[in-house]
Please model this.
Amino acid sequence: MCSQIGPWSPTKADASRVQYLDLSMSSLEPRTLEHALRACPALRKLSLESVRLSEHAQHLVGNCKNLETLNLTMARGITAEGLTSILEGCTGLQSLNISWCNLSEAALNVLVTMLPPKLQRLNVSGARIMTDEMVARLVGRCPRLLELDLSDCSRLGVAALGALGALRRLEHLALSRCYLLPPHALTKLSSMTSLQYLEVWGMLQTGSLNALRSALPAIQLNQFMFSAIARPTVGARRTSIWGLRTRD
Model:
């Protein structure tokens, strides 16, 4: 464990060169997690899935200036101030999963106004208080998105679909269980020429799903039930971490 010399800046002797760190599902004392984050300022990819984060830990994540991938799925304790620190510091983020974090309205407003403009992949599923206006602000902030998961954002309506149409590079969109979106409105996604995959799990009966397939012949429907955005391991065989082999 590194010696504590101050809240923000470890010495060269303390600092680790670790770039990939997966602490998913870990049961860590807040001070232990803070020590780990303080000692690893060179992190490029970090997973804190289902981990409780103190506000200080969130500030320390923001100190990882080289961070490209961040998985906060079901992380607990994320605040508007903590999220501000993360997004102010991690301006090079390309992939962020902040799904099912029970974000407050204040935290969601921070998210949609401060996301890095170069972000390519975002999962904010389970944000049940996400509004159409928030989606419009998100789209305006992140025009380069390739993949976006808004599943279980149950307040979203037709206006959100209109805003999403501005994402000219979007290849994969998940709107599963967004029950306020009628099937006829989904057909408007045909104007998104880059869109290849659309997830609408749990929303349509077989007949409506087949009709939507006919209306969107260039888009594959319901190919991926679970999102892999920012997650270090995918599938049953845990033999890699963010695509790097760990064992044969």
Observations:
- The two ends are 30 Å apart (CA to CA).
- Residues 1-11 have pLDDT under 50 and may be disordered.
- Residues 51 and 227 are 19 Å apart (CA to CA).
